Description:
The protein is mainly alpha-helical and 363 residues long. The protein has 17 helices and 9 strands. The structure holds zinc ion. Zinc ion (ZN) binds next to strand 7 and helix 13.
Amino acid sequence: MAIVERVLQILREGSAASTYKHAVLIALMDLCVERTAADGSAPQSVTTRQLATKVIELYWDQTRPFGGGGGAILQQTTQRGSSIPSWIQKLRQKVEDDVGCTLSPARARLADATSWTTLVDNVEVRLIEMPLAKLQRVAGEDHPWLYALSWDDGAHKPTHDSVQTYQRGEDSDFDNVVRLQPGVGECLSRLHSLMRPFVQQEWTRMVAKCSKMEESKLHGFLFGANRKALEAVRQPLADLQQGRCFYCGGRLGMNAHVDHFLPWARFAEDGLANLVVADARCNGNKRDHLPAHSFVEKWRQRTRGQRSELVRLSGQLQWQLAEDEALGTARAAYYRLPADTRLWAGRDEWLAIDLEALRKALA
Ligand SMILES: [Zn+2]
């Protein structure tokens, strides 16, 4: 459990109050699980570009007014000057005003690719300058236990020029690889469902401090699923399932629910690949449990067999699919479960984990 202690040290280190460290840590963890290979191994590196995109996704809904329309935008830093959340908020507002509805990051990227690229460029530069080089500094000393960079924020600081040249896709001496230390990817994947809520809690605490608000009111807003937005995909997905519950096959009545196949607590992502429709009873009974292998087979079957329909739906609704991310997360979650785990196999039914069947389905 040394890793929990180390993460806590990172988060409580320094006088600067901002949620950048929290965002980078969760981005790292999420990238580790989402990029799990077919054999279950965690990645050995990520790029500053991937981190920047992930950080934008994490902040995206947090830049909406707290408590609805007239509410304030939550403060995520006590420092003056422009911040990552404020850039995100500006872009989000602009594209949503143009289109006239709320958009996910993936849809915003489609709606205004140029502004999106500029935003990712800016966030990437800020991550390079600020949290990435400083994150592992505790009490003035660098302890690169998480990752190694080929630059720092001192003598080997990357020049603006080299980063911009790299961002234009030209030859540059800037190296965007964040090399995870041996075993770190595996460790972050294994502890993902424990560490993510832990860092979220610390993140909430920091926002409460920066915004001078009560912690208890903030957590759901910052990290809850956006149920309302999911309404748009309910009917199309139900049609894809011939109007039947994904789990029990019963007719879907008026109370059909959009269900995150991999629970939101493990995969906080609304891509179509991870969404199915279930009746209220199955949905309520499944809650945050991982579905058994028979459902995983069915789920993968849907992605393969109905890929063209899912892709068409994704284009029509301008809704991301996120198939690779869902698949990687499923591997990370299932392959690391204890051998005596029982999985949800339908209403009040449980099945022993069948790793062989799962490996086949998730290959
Ligand atoms: Zn059902």
